[in-house]
Amino acid sequence: MRLPPGFELARDGSTTMLLRSDLRGWLLPLLAAWKDDWRGYETRALAAGRGGTRLVRAAGHAVVLRPYRRGGLVARVLHDTYIGWQPRPFAELETLAALRQRGAPVIEVYGAAVHWLLPGCYRGWLATRYLAGSRTLWEWATDAPPAPPRARVLTQVGRAVRCLHDRGGWHPDLNLNNVLLTTPEGAGDLEVVFIDFDATAAVQRLPRTPQADLARLERSALKLDPAGTRLTAADLEIVRAAYAAGATCA
């Protein structure tokens, strides 16, 4: 495992943590608090991914803690247990940190924790910044915004996907719920931020064509909105056109 710039390793018994050095004072005890199920912290469940994601407030910071949970049939047996010597939370953290450093529009990562149940067998969590006031692309689409602002937002989504690719990244599960729309504090322009990359994402390693990310986004729209009333074919064409225009990162 490569240690990203500005991050450090810490250990607490059978738990290994990778965290930002400048946040160590409050982040280390937060990551280690899994043993008490974060008792003593203000927490709130968030509807994200495969469940278990929570918003935690610590020392004036709002943090999203996302546990790693399996999908499919194997989830019935292993649920949140993984096997291997290269923990998924650390791999995702490394990718996110590298992409952020390159200027890609990905969520800011704070740290990750892995609790070793047995040698090579672990449970893990990822800690990222909470973007207050943000909503997913799907949540935005269900509000049925009027045409002019609608086109502007969809154009920004297409540009953001292109920016991600131009910075050497790709998203293994780009769907409408993994795209956040947020207005930066003190500014009126909307930002697009990608979340939930999982461990199969990488920097400068594109096993698929870049267009595959757009195709996955469109399949997500079809799955969530089969009738195409929230995100129409014309809407998705706006995203594709903005991507094809070759917009660079701001």
Explain this structure.
Helix 4 (147-166) crosses helix 6. The relative contact order is 0.13. The chain is 30% helix and 24% strand. It has six helices and eleven strands. It has 250 residues and is of the alpha+beta class. The chain has two domains: 7-129, 2-Layer Sandwich (Phosphorylase Kinase, domain 1); 135-244, Orthogonal Bundle (Transferase(Phosphotransferase), domain 1).
- Mean pLDDT across all residues, rounded? 87
Q: How would you classify the helix and strand content by structural class?
A: alpha+beta
Unreliable parts: 72-77
Write down the oligomeric state: single chain
Q: Please give the alpha-carbon distance between the first and last residues.
A: 31 Å
Look at the structure and name the CATH superfamily of the largest domain. Phosphorylase Kinase, domain 1
CATH architecture of the largest domain: 2-Layer Sandwich
CATH C-level category of the largest domain = Alpha Beta
Residue fraction in strands: 15-25%
Overall helicity? 25-40%
CATH fold description of the largest domain:
Phosphorylase Kinase, domain 1
Run of helices and strands: EEHEEEEHEEEHHEEHH
Alpha-carbon Rg, integer? 18 Å
The helix tally amounts to: 6
- Biggest sheet statistics: 8 strands, antiparallel
What is the domain tally? 2
Number of strands: 11
Instruction: Sum up the overall morphology in one term.
Output: globular
